[in-house]
TrEMBL record:
<dbReference type="InterPro" id="IPR029787">
    <property type="entry name" value="Nucleotide_cyclase"/>
</dbReference>
<feature type="transmembrane region" description="Helical">
    <location>
        <begin position="93"/>
        <end position="116"/>
    </location>
</feature>
<keyword id="KW-1133">Transmembrane helix</keyword>
<keyword id="KW-0812">Transmembrane</keyword>
<dbReference type="InterPro" id="IPR000160">
    <property type="entry name" value="GGDEF_dom"/>
</dbReference>
<dbReference type="Pfam" id="PF00990">
    <property type="entry name" value="GGDEF"/>
</dbReference>
<dbReference type="InterPro" id="IPR043128">
    <property type="entry name" value="Rev_trsase/Diguanyl_cyclase"/>
</dbReference>
<keyword id="KW-0472">Membrane</keyword>
<feature type="transmembrane region" description="Helical">
    <location>
        <begin position="128"/>
        <end position="145"/>
    </location>
</feature>
<feature type="domain" description="GGDEF">
    <location>
        <begin position="187"/>
        <end position="313"/>
    </location>
</feature>
<feature type="region of interest" description="Disordered">
    <location>
        <begin position="298"/>
        <end position="320"/>
    </location>
</feature>
<feature type="transmembrane region" description="Helical">
    <location>
        <begin position="61"/>
        <end position="81"/>
    </location>
</feature>
<protein>
    <submittedName>
        <fullName>Diguanylate cyclase</fullName>
    </submittedName>
</protein>
Length: 320
């Protein structure tokens, strides 16, 4: 697809080699616009919600400015800025949702087609107008690929690619399923919340992110295939241990804390981790079990951190 679109400006130049210099000028503008699109197509291919907010609003402001500028150019002002019109469809689809970008492109296409009826451009309008329509078509191709990719990957996007942890949105459904399975089969289900204790000197954001990636990879190597873990805020994980009683879960979490401590010691980092462990009781659901685990973790950290605490040890009612 890329090779076909790249060949378009070459074809235009061959077909109109003997015409006026304006044709070559607009052809070069099309080629430059497409080259710029290739260099920055990750912006168009990225979904609007996944894009950082400052970048999103910068693109939105720029796209509106380009659209207004293009309409002014089409009205006869600043004709030397005509090549900027090729960037209007790309910037609209990169910064706005489909409906808003589509409406903006409709206005842009209406203004473009009106140029074909204007005699002010002379013979150049027979080349300039089709190239603008091709630029809009190119943006539409990028948007189609973006939406198609998002639709294909949405059911599969369950894990964070860095920590390999499952996305937090799936915790409630997964945990409720494990609780129901445990009730049917008569097997225990345990939830643990593992968190980094707050250091005296806060870690730089990048160092903290790198540390959480390494902890996530440690959990991935250590836990069983049917265990699962999820990101919990910026400094911890929620771990679901099916078919595991509370004492066994405590031993598992203590083993993970020991390995994490060795890793931190090798890196020269004086950091500790705390964990809260709670077993499912009759009547528990995903929400209540998660809240108990979070409360157990808070009490463990309140006692000084660097420890694993169970729900009953923390003073909770019921049994583990």
């Amino acid at each position: 697809m890329d090779s076909v679109l790249i060949s378009l400006p070459i074809g235009f130049r061959i077909c109109f080699q003997g015409t006026a210099g304006k044709v070559r000028y607009y052809t070069r503008a099309w080629g430059s616009g497409y080259s710029l699109a290739l260099q920055h197509r990750e912006l168009i291919m990225e979904t609007e919600t996944a894009m950082p907010v400052p970048l999103r609003w910068t693109l939105r402001a720029g796209s509106l400015l380009l659209l207004l500028l293009s309409l002014a150019i089409f009205a006869g002002h600043w004709p030397w800025l005509t090549p900027l019109a090729f960037l209007v469809p790309l910037s609209l689809f990169a910064g706005w949702g489909l409906w808003v970008a589509g409406a903006g492109c409709a206005v842009f296409l209406a203004a473009t087609l009106s140029l074909g009826l204007s005699s002010e451009l002379g013979m150049a309008r027979h080349q300039f107008v089709p190239m603008l329509i091709l630029a809009t078509g190119l943006a539409a191709v990028f948007v189609y690929l973006r939406e198609y990719k998002a639709a294909q990957l949405a059911p599969l996007r369950r894990t964070d690619s860095l920590t390999l942890a499952s996305i937090r949105d799936y915790l409630d459904s997964d945990l409720n399923r494990e609780i129901r399975r445990g009730e049917r089969e008569g097997t225990p289900v345990t939830v643990a919340v593992l968190h980094l204790d707050a250091p005296e000197t806060p870690l730089p954001e990048q160092d903290q992110s790198n540390l959480m990636v390494r902890l996530g990879r440690l959990l991935h190597r250590t836990l069983r295939d049917f265990d699962s873990y999820y990101r919990n805020n910026e400094t911890g994980f929620i771990i679901v241990l099916p078919a595991t009683a509370t004492p066994d879960s405590v031993r598992t979490i203590e083993g993970i804390r020991s390995q994490a401590k060795d890793m931190l010691t090798r890196e020269g980092m004086e950091l500790t981790l705390s964990a809260g462990v709670v077993g499912a009781n009759v009547g528990d659901d995903a929400r209540s079990l998660s809240e108990k685990a979070q409360e157990t973790l808070r009490r463990a950290q309140k006692q000084g951190g660097n420890r694993t605490l169970t729900w009953t040890d923390a003073g909770g009612t019921g049994h583990d």
